[in-house]
Design goal:
The protein is mainly alpha-helical and 231 residues long. It contains ten helices and four strands, in the order H-H-H-H-H-H-E-E-H-E-E-H-H-H.
Length: 231
């Protein structure tokens, strides 16, 4: 998933050619091969699911002599490619808050075979909250508290179409378009509220996200959506 998003991000944010994008991907795949060769716990940069995991890889590469030598010989092409991905995943706040919807597209669904659960990525959720400016999308006047993790108003990511229904869709529903920024109260309302209250809020959110969902390969009617969430 992050691979597909990164390809589109780098083209939009850096205005580069397809061949340049391919060079970046090849460079990162070379890093993946090095991680696998050295039995690093996470063997694919594109499979990270948190800032912490990516920071650990960054620290590892900065102290790995084999990588440093390869990067020097390659005129820093590997570190440049990794830094572009790091920027996409962790640091490009302007893009998250202004252009994240530009990345909406069809993403293949992936299942975690070991646990037989559908894959979901914390980075995707974190970026979606940035795009919503940490405001509750049910009511932007709802206030919470400052989160110690990022210094922003505490909010939670909610899958408008719940992940348990992933099997009913041909593409991933763990995508930017399907993640809603909610305060804890509204989040719980959409999970545990009465059918009337839950339905009213879900209906409004569906109206706001319908076109973005379609752009992401999630084409569902209002009636089918309401049936899925039980309202």
């Amino acid at each position: 998933m992050l691979l597909e998003y990164f390809k589109k991000y780098i083209k939009i944010s850096r205005n580069v050619s397809d061949s340049t994008v391919d060079h970046y991907i090849t460079a990162i795949n070379t890093i993946n091969a090095l991680l696998a060769k050295n039995n690093y716990p996470l063997k694919n940069v594109f499979s990270v699911s948190s800032h912490e995991e990516l920071n650990d890889i960054k620290d590892y590469l900065n102290t790995n002599e084999e990588f440093i030598k390869k990067d020097t010989v390659g005129h820093r092409m590997y570190s440049v490619a990794f830094n572009h991905f790091y920027m996409f995943a962790c640091e490009d706040k302007d893009f998250y808050t202004q252009k994240l919807d530009k990345l909406d597209m069809v993403i293949p669904k992936k299942i975690i075979a070991i646990s037989n659960t559908w894959n979901r990525n914390k980075l995707i959720s974190a970026q979606a909250l940035e795009f919503a400016h940490y405001q509750c999308e049910c009511d932007n006047e709802h206030k919470t508290f400052v989160a110690a993790s990022n210094g922003k108003q505490y909010m939670e990511g909610h899958h408008l179409i719940p992940m348990k229904f992933q099997k009913d869709f041909s593409s991933s529903i763990d995508v930017y378009a399907n993640i809603i920024c909610l305060c804890p109260i509204c989040h719980r309302l959409l999970h545990y509220g009465t059918s009337k209250e839950k339905g009213y809020n879900a209906d409004r959110l569906f109206d706001v996200r319908k076109n973005r969902l379609i752009n992401s390969g999630i084409d569902i009617s209002r009636s089918d959506f309401k049936q899925l969430i039980g309202v």
